[in-house]
Amino acid sequence: MRLVDMQGRIVACSDAYCTLTGLPREELVGQTLTVVYHPNAREQMLHIFKKGLQSGSLPEAEQLKLRLWDGRKIWLDIRHTHFARKDSEAYLWSSFRDISKIKRTQKIRRDNEKRLRLLFDRAADAIFLTPFSEDFRPGAFIEVNDTASKRLLYSKEELSRLTPYSVIPAKLYEKLNQALKKLHTEATAVFQLQLLRKDKRRIPVEISLRRFKLDHQETIVWVVRDITQRKQVEKRLKETSSQLRDLASRIQTVREEERTMIAREIHDELGQVLTVLKIQLSLTANKLLPEQQEIKTRIKSTYGLLDNAVEAVQRISAKLRPGILDELGLAAAVEWQAQDFEKHTGIHCKCSLLSEPVSLSAEKSTAVFRIFQEALTNAARHADADRVSIFLKNRNDKMILEIIDNGCGINKTQINSPKSLGILGMRERVVVLGGSMEINGVPGKGTHIKVTMPRK
User: Fold this and answer.
1) N or C: at which end does the chain have fewer Cβ atoms within 10 angstroms?
2) Bridging pattern class, strands 387-395 and 348-352
3) Other beta carbons within 10 Å of 446
4) What's the first-to-final CA gap in the chain, in angstroms?
5) For residue 207, with 0-12 CB atoms within 10 Å meaning exposed, 13-18 middle and 19 or more buried, which class applies?
6) The 10-13 sheet, strands edge to edge
7) Are 139 and 132 spatial neighbours (Cβ–Cβ below 8 Å)?
8) Under CATH, which number does the domain 329-454 receive?
9) What are the pLDDT digits (tens) for 397-437?
10) What pTM, to 2 d.p., does this model score?
């Protein structure tokens, strides 16, 4: 507290005033009020004080930033009270409160708000604020950043009169409502949608919703990311993937055609040559003289080599393209392959096959058969199994092949490994023809492969 007369001389002051100014009472009382100010500001401060008294414009309360006699700069909250003593001389009571810390805090908050506003407006994603409603319908936009305004081609003033439903196609309202309902039980909701610009062009976006309190009001912040480029990349990837699958399908078709052609050539051409050769040797042996018995014996021993060669030709031809697949169909080919596999590996195969013909195209039958062959090969090489069960059945408009072994059981790492080329090839054969394949392994119990192929 400080008491001054109308000339601006200090009549009395409190201990708190002495502490505030840093001067003892004896250096204050009797001096003009400007003694506490810096010398450069004293004359100006006294002039302001006297002018305010004379004109009656001295405010009852004011906040000033002042520089004191010792160079300190502080903010003061000053309150003035006029009063008159018995001798009719007027005096002025003034109270002082140091609010420097408050002002610094306010400045820090203003600076932070400016920085936050700058970050808000310059964010790469569009950001909207809307009130949170218990009926799942957001109200008008409370705040939007510059990115949102530029992206939607609306001014901020225009957006302040709109709601999220104004910038979303009507057919997507239900999807938005479901996401808003999710906010009642979860902190966030992330989903993809389309926004309508002012020119009615649609923008694919990913929206992240989060609830928070703004000035004690439940609010939703919408972070909206334009995913146009991502969608374009995804589209190109899908197109590329489709082209690769078409190419893979074509390669498989060409490979099977080549196998069929080679198998036929080996079986027909080489088989016939070996048969004719055996006949020619037989005729030659019959024309030999009795004293040429040694030559006859050698020719007869050659018959065995020719028979082995014929069997080898048939075996190679069957591996390239089993004729039974084309002549009797998939079920017969599966049964033949299982028997041949059991014969060469000693692994018991139990087949449960369709009694009726499998109504599947030649291309799909070939794919399923090749998958079956690969599955048996894996069972022999990696599964350490001694029993394999094979099921071939029709279910609605699909054909299902299941191969179950009792081996060590494949694990997820092996299934998804890029080095598992056999499994990758099996998957690719199925996918290019619109089918699917599931592989499940249980450690120590075996592996279950299920191939589903649409018949139409």
Assistant:
1) C
2) parallel
3) 21
4) 98
5) buried
6) 10-13, 2-5, 90-98, 73-84, 61-67
7) no
8) 3.30.565.10
9) 888 899 999 888 888 888 888 777 788 888 888 888 888 89
10) 0.50
